[in-house]
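Input structure tokens:
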């Protein structure tokens, strides 16, 4: 098979650079690369050469059609750039055209050799397109489901700086009795109940206008004249340039708390809504860390190219593996989100060393970037029976907070340790850092929801609150913190079985 191409394989190998230049210089391919700010040099080195070697490998029978070793990395790269299937076709077809143009230039053109090139291209592109389209479809479906879940269940609204409504969720419309058309463009106080004191709203505006988060119980008036109560959390909203553009609010319906305590059905249903609201916020918090890590990983590639003039295969493999680890974790947190409040979900047995290794591997690249010295201390391994990914989330939250504290305080020697040991029927994990400790004035607040010390407006104040919920309510353990003479020490106590 492909006998005509095999006869010219040596010539193809010797002309690799010319074929690559012809491919990338194609005006249609160049248009796509320029439109999506894709550097030609990086594209050639990281992907184009690999695809060329794959085609040669098919002729040398080292690869089967559809078994390209770099195709998954290329597809992930193009998906990150939001390139569509039509532009994917332009890029792939450009390589086929470069091969055909080459055989014309060398006067070896025959109908049979063209057929062989086109056959390989069509069979390969068919598989590429299937992979690319299927993944995009899955991502879109997941996004649609997530957006629908939030819109239908979370009472949310957004206003400009003057309090004029710019967006509301379906859940907000359902509880207020107004349609979106009736709400958007109107002052938010249109749902305010006249019984609410002016002092409460003055305090709210004073708080959020100063850039802080306000939380309180508010009595509102439905369109039909009935009342409803919400526990509201309102926060300033900023654009990508950190300019204050308005306010966003999440509310929990607490009408059931204000009405008859005997209405148990209402209590149960509203409790579910409240839990869902908290979990959506927690999920957003959990995703922020891996997304930031992915951004750092991607930024490191052009930086290393700029500094060293090249990107080693080892670095590229490490970055790809690290990104895959972050994405796998994000996928797993969705599954945990679906079963978080299910008391009957199964535990699994795992050795403490494996659990700590997973946390270390998850943060390894960001620790390396920020010069964090990470050490594990243990006398012997211990097998425990836990909800693995939930406890892993706790470790990642605490470790990431320690890392950020060390970086923020610009410590020269940045050390974090995890020590674990057995105590009766429990296992104890101690996470220590040398960031100077937690100020005593806030020590008793750090596990409260929505309390955050982060000044970059990326803190939700849910990380440690969620960690305490996981350890104490779901894991039947204890999570506490104290200061040492050099930093903070978090202690996690969990039953072994």
């Amino acid at each position: 098979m492909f006998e005509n191409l095999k006869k010219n394989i040596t010539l193809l190998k010797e002309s690799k650079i010319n074929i690559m230049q012809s491919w990338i210089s194609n005006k249609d391919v160049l248009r796509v690369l320029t439109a999506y700010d894709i550097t030609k040099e990086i594209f050639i080195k990281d992907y184009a050469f690999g695809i060329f070697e794959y085609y040669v490998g098919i002729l040398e029978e080292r690869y089967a059609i559809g078994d390209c070793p770099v195709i998954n990395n290329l597809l992930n790269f193009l998906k990150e750039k939001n390139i569509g299937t039509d532009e994917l076709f332009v890029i792939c077809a450009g390589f086929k055209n470069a091969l055909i143009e080459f055989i014309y230039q060398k006067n070896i053109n025959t109908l049979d050799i063209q057929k062989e090139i086109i056959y390989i291209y069509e069979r390969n592109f068919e598989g590429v397109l299937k992979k690319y389209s299927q993944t995009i479809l899955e991502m879109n479906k997941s996004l649609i489901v997530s957006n629908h879940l939030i819109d239908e269940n979370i009472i949310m609204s957004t206003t400009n700086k003057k309090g004029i409504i710019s967006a509301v969720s379906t859940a907000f419309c359902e509880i207020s009795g107004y349609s979106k058309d009736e709400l958007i463009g109107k002052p938010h106080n249109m749902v305010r109940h006249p019984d609410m004191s002016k002092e409460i709203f003055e305090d709210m505006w004073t708080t959020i206008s100063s850039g802080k988060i306000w939380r309180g119980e508010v009595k509102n008036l439905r369109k039909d004249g009935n009342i409803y109560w919400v526990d509201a959390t309102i926060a300033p909203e900023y654009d990508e340039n950190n300019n204050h553009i308005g306010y966003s609010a999440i509310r929990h319906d607490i009408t059931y708390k204000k009405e008859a305590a005997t209405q148990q059905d209402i209590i149960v249903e509203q409790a579910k809504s409240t839990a869902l609201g908290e979990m959506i916020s927690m999920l957003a918090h959990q995703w922020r860390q891996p997304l930031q890590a992915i951004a750092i990983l991607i930024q490191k590639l052009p930086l290393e190219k700029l500094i060293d003039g090249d990107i080693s295969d080892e670095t590229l493999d490490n970055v790809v593996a690290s990104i895959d680890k972050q994405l796998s974790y994000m996928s797993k947190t969705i599954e945990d989100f679906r079963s978080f409040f299910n008391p009957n979900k199964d535990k699994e047995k795992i050795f403490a060393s494996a659990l700590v290794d997973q946390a270390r591997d998850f943060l390894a690249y960001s620790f390396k970037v920020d010069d964090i010295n990470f050490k594990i201390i243990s006398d012997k391994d211990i097998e425990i029976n836990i909800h693995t990914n939930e406890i892993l989330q706790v470790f990642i939250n605490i470790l990431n907070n320690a890392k950020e504290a060390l970086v923020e305080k610009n410590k020269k020697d940045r050390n974090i340790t995890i020590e674990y040991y057995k105590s009766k029927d429990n296992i104890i994990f101690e996470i220590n850092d040398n960031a100077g400790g937690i100020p005593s004035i806030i020590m008793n607040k750090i596990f409260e929801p929505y309390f955050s010390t982060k000044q970059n407006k990326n803190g939700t104040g849910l990380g440690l609150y969620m960690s305490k919920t996981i350890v104490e309510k779901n894991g039947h353990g204890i999570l506490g913190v104290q200061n040492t003479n050099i930093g903070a020490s978090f202690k996690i106590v969990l039953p072994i079985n």
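Residues 264-272 have pLDDT under 50 and may be disordered. The chain has three domains: 3-150, 154-259, 289-495.
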